[in-house]
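Fold this complex.
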Amino acid sequence: MTCEDRVKKLPAYLEGELSPQESEEFKAHLASCETCRETLEALKAADRLVRNLGEVDPPPWLKQQIMTRVREAHAERERFWRKFFFPLHIKIPVQAFVVIIVSVLAFYIYRQDEPRLRMRGIPLPPTQVFEVQKEQAIPSPRSSRSKMITPSRDMTVPREALMPAPQPGRSEDGDAYTSLAPAEKGEDVMPTELKRDARETSAAEEPASAEKSQVPQNEAIAWPITMKEKRAASRPPQTISGASSRICEQDVCTAGELEGRDGAGDSVAKGAAMKEMAVKDAQPSLALLLTVKDVASAGVELDKYLATVNARHTEITFHGEQQAFATEVRPHFVASVLKKLNQIGLLADHPVPPEFEMEAQWVKMKITIMPAVNQNP
Amino acid sequence: MLNVAYRMTGDYDEACDCVQEAFFSAYRGIGKFRREARFSTWLYGIVVNQAKNRLRQVKSRRGHESLTDMHSRHGEALCGDCSAAPLTESLADQWERKELEAKVQTCIIGLEHDFREVLVLKDIQDLSYEEIRDVLHIPVGTVKSRLFRARLTLKNCLAKVWGDLK
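Structure:
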């Protein structure tokens, strides 16, 4: 190793980074080599000079300037957020936009999940359907009050219990599922289970209606007004033709409305109510029995289809494996609904759509979906 | 921090700007600070990087003018202004010390940047090898080799400008 090589290693030797063997060798060499010794001394001196360099003092304004810059940056950052959120002309539209977006999303999600919710039997916001019975003689407003009270009093009854339950006097045998064609043949197309359910429900309701018929008159007068208010919110009232052109509900023309007027208008209102009842009685209906392989999917499909034909007052009830749809469609859609039902499954005894009078604005349809296995075991 | 910046750049004003920028960068990037190393180590790293960037800007600004020339021109006065001189020192001694420091500073500035930063951190700031490794993100072996080469180069430079160093 030459002196030049050793000089390169001198800093490491000074720092004690050489191995003991190399250090011993260096010591021996330094003892004999004056040039290397001088270089070592020069290195030590340079090291001392560097280490003895004075500390540089910061100027007095440096700290202040740094803090000013930092505060400015902080304020600017705050200003940005404040600018984004604080001024009302920005904040309010942003919040309104967010609210609208959230509402639309919520509505969209609800609409998408609605069929599934129905399938699972989760109660949905009620769409109330009150039917005036076909076979019922049109009673006087006072005497009909007790009968009309029955559905309205049952507003607290669950929707499933209310809708499919046949009501007393609805048909001669108490069966709500009497289709046109089977009725002509005198056949009973109601499934056994449905019948049982219907009877149980009607039996449960009978005491209630009997009880309601004994309700004191002031209470009986009070409830339709409440019902009117409730229903007015969900459905636009119809105008009954008459001298005073009064507003009355479609199927419940209440005693309060009919009686609480002057004498001249009273008879007109009664007549209008009776006319309305007559129109309701003339509303045609269809009861259909559909056998399918998969009741659940058929139900979903039917529900979607009914929505496309603008069916109203659609109610779905579940009886074990069976589903019952009660709905109302326009007469010109009846044929397409029947066609759809034939596509979904096997429709019992209803190949040709019946013709309805043009006066009929809505046709009631009661569709019972049954599994094919149960039908033909 | 100012000492490191000054020894790295050799210009007092540049060093002040450098420290200012470094603290400001630290404020903005405080979220990036991971507690693996000490805060001062992290701050040293920012100062060294700022100094490097400043020197690059100055170099491009001054064109062909070499940094060594620039610092040899500015170094003496700046060192004299910034160093803390003991009150007991005579004027002659003070003058001599300033001159010496200016020459040392000139030689430090004459080092390559990689060597200079290691020398400043080790011999002036007295950081350990591990701390320098954390500041510069280089292995300890590299730190040592750079330091030894920096010391040799500095010794040669000082011998050239000062004469006999013994």
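Residues 286 and 365 of chain A are 5 Å apart (CA to CA).
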